[in-house]
Design goal:
The complex is a heterotrimer.
Chain A: E1 4-9, H1 18-26, H2 34-39, E2 47-53, E3 60-66, H3 75-79, E4 85-87, E5 93-95, H4 105-109, E6 116-117, H5 126-129, E7 144-145, H6 151-163, H7 176-180, E8 186-190, H8 197-201, E9 207-208, E10 220-223
Parallel strand pairs in A: 1-10
Antiparallel strand pairs in A: 1-8, 2-3, 4-5, 6-7, 9-10
Chain B: H1 2-9, H2 15-18, H3 22-48, H4 63-74, H5 78-87, H6 97-118, H7 126-131, H8 137-157, H9 161-170, H10 175-182, H11 189-222, H12 234-260, H13 269-300, H14 303-313, H15 318-336, H16 344-371, H17 386-409, H18 415-436, H19 443-450
Helix pairs in contact in B: 3-17, 4-6, 4-12, 4-16, 5-6, 5-11, 6-8, 6-17, 8-11, 9-10, 11-12, 12-13, 12-16, 13-15, 14-15, 14-16, 15-16, 18-19
Chain C: H1 2-37, H2 42-72
Helix pairs in contact in C: 1-2
Classes of the chains: A alpha+beta, B mainly alpha, C mainly alpha.
Chain lengths: 227, 451, 75
């Protein structure tokens, strides 16, 4: 069985936030207003963390795109009281929106703070509301959501392969952020398959994962910048 | 005949049941209004979602969880203290145990509702029934709070049976209620034995259950790997804090109802002095735990932990942190260790301070860890809205209301235990004391002393 | 007549307590079953089950003991 993983090359990332936008559109992530956003209720499945180094004028800005890290040992699924989040056999940490009771324990337990909560009924600007992605279920108010590696794309790709009576091929399933990245900084694929791009990339000496010391074993890897 | 004399002696204890003044109705009306307002805000919250609270990301837990921990903490006043005092045969417990047990039952019901208030989808609480995960600390809570609620209501009810029978025999209305609840109690030897046995079993059982409840609540935080939460001493730290706030709540309730229902004959200065000694000890224990918790963090100086540490000591939460230290340690120890200030007023001030301090402690545990995520996110400040304050006020109102209604129908001081104390405890204690002494005191001598 | 209805009420309350306790225990057992089916850390659930199930039965047992004992030993 596949073990889906992602490698983000920070050397290629320009911080353009195309991945953030692609993700929001793909997954019907709600758009909150300015006031809400200032309160800290922005909903982003893919976020870009900014890190400033040095004193002006010798500053350096570093960007770090952050989807859900899809841990192999996820602290969030352990604490869920109702199995609304679990590690599926292909290594994706899934969210079941109709099952979530909205206790937000998983949000509190996630060391990467990747989860968002629907504080209100989600809504979009009128132009966008007409163009929601039909493959991704809408969320009601009061449930937790996060990046799912665009798991609906996996389902679609599998169905396609099934109907054509063949195995799923490499690069047939790829999340929106990886697909849309203009500098191709995001690679995606099966970590266990010896020929996939990601399995070659994770052998690079530049490879690292976020907060490795916690033992959460993320399946989103980063390639460090070359100075 | 003699029985009636005794009851005549204790007529103060029936006062709250048999005389209901306008003040009572005004008070109930006021509390109902507060409660109605709280319910109203809650309905609005259900309609619009948790967005109307001050919660956001990453501070996704706030007042509701703080109050959950706080109220459940107070519940330790009751059953635990009453069980320990009963178990250790502390004779001065007699007028105290009932009030302590009532606190537990009411506060547990309030606290237990808070996680539901906090839920984004409250009607999905049924998912716990169909597909709950016993591996989640939240389910440990559900189980242990249910067990504690069941055990402590039974533990409140059983010693109430003889008193209910007294009320039944006096013909207090509604008669059917007392007839129903007294289970044909007539005070026969055999019945007394059965009741005593049941109370003894329960009181031993209830202590570990009570300890488990707050341990498990601390595990909600301690089982995660978040800085400031992932601590091995959280279990005992929470239990100690719970007993601490519980004693403070008990003292406040005792002082208030002593004044309102004129119970000065029963709740004497000595009871307050003994209980306040316990409060003083718990204050010292609380300080010890807090000290070890933060010193180990500071000495290790792990960067993520230190972010939370400085957020509490010098950052946004420092006012609350230092007020907590003053309220939980400096004021109570200052007042209670000085015999001049250790009077009812002093004890009242110390207890109120402790309640404020312990509430702040829960706030300081819940919010700063969430406000300092490990990765670099912009974080706001948590400012609770009117909704959260209203529901907090509602919780407090239910507590007082519950107490008033209980006092309307049942005696707040155990009548039969007071009587039993008058009849048998003096000679029992004399015998017990003589058995402590190195040389056996003759039975005749005890009798002489008793006369 | 009143005596009889109160007696029925009392019996009903004992029955109610047992229904409650059995319901809690059945609930815990069913959760164990789900955990086993989904292969989701069953041992943790078993530990809680072992503690909780007898506990609730004991509480109901004590209450029944008192109720029956008091009724039986009326003069």
């Amino acid at each position: 069985m596949a073990r889906w993983g992602m490698v983000i090359d920070l050397n290629k990332c320009t911080g353009c936030a195309e991945c953030v936008t692609a993700c929001k559109v793909e997954n019907n992530v709600a758009v909150v207003g300015k006031d809400e956003s200032e309160m800290g209720r922005t909903m982003l499945w893919m976020d870009i963390l900014t890190h400033y180094e040095g004193e002006y004028p010798n500053t350096k800005v570093r960007y770090l795109p952050r989807p859900c890290l899809q841990c192999d040992n996820p602290p969030c699924t352990k604490v869920c009281p109702v199995r609304a989040t679990y590690l599926d056999p292909e290594g994706i940490v899934a969210q079941i929106f109709p099952q979530c009771i909205g206790c937000r324990y998983c949000m509190a337990a996630c060391p990467y703070t990747v989860k968002s909560f629907n504080w209100y009924e989600p809504h979009w600007p009128q132009e966008m509301a007409a163009a929601l992605n039909p493959d991704v279920s809408a969320r009601p108010a009061g449930v937790v959501e996060k990046c799912t590696f665009c798991v609906h794309r996996l389902q679609k790709a599998k169905e396609q392969a099934d109907s054509e009576n063949r195995e799923l091929q490499d690069n047939e399933y790829i999340p929106a952020c990886a697909e849309d990245c203009p500098t191709q900084a995001i690679s995606f694929g099966d970590l266990d398959s010896p020929h996939s791009e990601v399995s070659e990339l994770i052998r690079s000496p530049r490879i690292f994962t976020l907060l490795e010391e916690l033992g959460t074993e993320p399946k989103v890897y980063y390639l460090s910048e070359i100075e | 005949m003699q029985k009636n004399d005794l009851l005549e002696k204790d007529r103060d204890l029936f006062y709250s049941i048999e005389h209901t003044g306008p003040a009572f109705y005004w008070m109930v009306g006021l509390l109902m209004t507060i409660l109605a307002f709280a319910l109203f805000t809650y309905i609005i919250q259900i309609k619009f979602g948790l967005g109307i609270t001050g919660l956001a990301q990453p501070i996704s837990w706030g007042f509701y969880i703080v109050n959950f921990v706080f109220f459940i903490g107070i519940s330790h006043a009751g059953t635990l203290i009453s069980a320990i005092l009963r178990l250790s045969k502390a004779e001065w417990r007699r007028p105290i145990t009932r009030m302590a047990e009532v606190i537990t039952a009411i506060v547990l019901a309030i606290g237990g509702l808070h996680p539901i208030i906090d839920q984004g989808q409250p009607e999905r609480i049924l998912h716990l029934v169909t597909s709950g995960r016993l591996q989640s600390p939240l389910l440990w809570d559900v189980t242990s709070i249910t067990a504690y609620f069941a055990a402590s209501t039974v533990y409140l009810y059983l010693p109430l049976i003889p008193d209910i029978a007294i009320l039944r025999d006096r013909g207090t209305k509604p008669r059917w209620l007392y007839q129903f609840l007294s289970w044909g109690w007539q005070g026969t030897e055999r019945q007394k034995k059965i009741l005593e046995r049941a109370i003894n079993i329960l009181m031993v059982m209830v202590i570990p259950i009570a300890v488990s409840v707050h341990t498990v609540i601390s595990y909600i935080f301690a089982m995660t790997i978040q800085p400031g939460w992932h601590s091995t001493i959280f279990g005992p730290y929470f239990v100690a804090g719970a007993i601490f706030s519980g004693i403070a709540a008990l003292l406040i309730v005792m002082i208030a109802f002593r004044k309102v229902y004129h119970l000065e004959r029963y709740l004497k200065e000595i009871h307050f002095k003994y209980l306040s000694t316990l409060l003083l000890i718990m204050s010292l224990i609380w300080f010890y735990f807090t000290f070890s918790e933060y010193l180990t963090t500071f000495y290790g100086h792990e960067p993520d932990e230190m972010k939370v540490f400085f957020y509490k000591f010098t950052g946004d939460f420092s006012p609350y942190f230092w007020i907590m230290v003053i309220c939980n340690f400096i004021i109570p120890v200052g007042i209670l260790s000085n015999s001049k200030t250790r009077n009812i007023t002093g004890i009242f001030i110390a207890s109120v301070c402790v309640l404020i301090g312990m509430w702040l402690e829960r706030l300081i545990i819940v919010v700063p860890s969430l406000a300092n995520p490990r990765l670099e996110y912009p974080t706001g400040i948590y400012i609770p809205t009117l909704t959260e304050w209203a529901l907090f006020a509602g919780g407090v109102a239910v507590f007082i209301l519950g107490f008033l209604i209980f006092a309307k129908y049942f005696p707040l001081i155990s009548i039969w235990e007071i009587e039993e104390g008058r009849e048998t405890s003096i000679s029992e204690v004399a015998h017990r004391l003589s058995s402590y002494l190195p040389d056996d005191v003759e039975q005749d001598e005890i009798k002489k002393i008793l006369k | 007549m009143e005596k009889k209805s109160i007696f029925i009420l009392q019996i009903a309350s004992i029955v109610y307590i047992w229904i409650f306790v059995i319901a809690v225990d059945v609930w815990i057992l069913s959760l164990l079953n789900v955990a086993k089916k989904l292969n989701d850390a069953i041992n943790a659930s078993v530990a809680i089950g072992i503690l909780a199930i007898p506990l609730f039965i004991t509480i109901a047992g004590i209450l029944t003991y008192v109720f029956v004992g008091l009724q039986k030993n009326k003069v």
